[in-house]
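input
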Amino acid sequence: MALIKCKECGKEISDRASACPNCGCPLLEISKEGEVRIKMPNNIVQGWVGLFSSRDARVEDEEGNILWKGQHGENAKFIINRPVKVTIYLGGWANPIYGIVEPRKKYSLIQDLGVHMLATFRLTEVDLIDAD
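output
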């Protein structure tokens, strides 16, 4: 949670509030745009598979537009103004991850347990990312 100033009364309030508790000014109607952050896993594939695996990562929206492009272990950061269906690609060693992200929220990719030919992750909302 971050603190922002109300545009109406100037008091500090939570960025997740739908209205200012001091003056009642609606906040979500003022600004729906915000940064999304996703903690990418820092997995290094070992053995022969690792020789042919890319450390590239990218996040695309449902139209195939690239919202972020980087490397494993980085924090993906991009700005959106509404909930967006995304696909996250981690290279050839992991299954694509599908989910919906919302402005001003943080997410992490959690690896599911089990025996898989390819690594499988799920997108989970979190309060903090390591760099916070």
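quick obs: Helices lie at 47-51.
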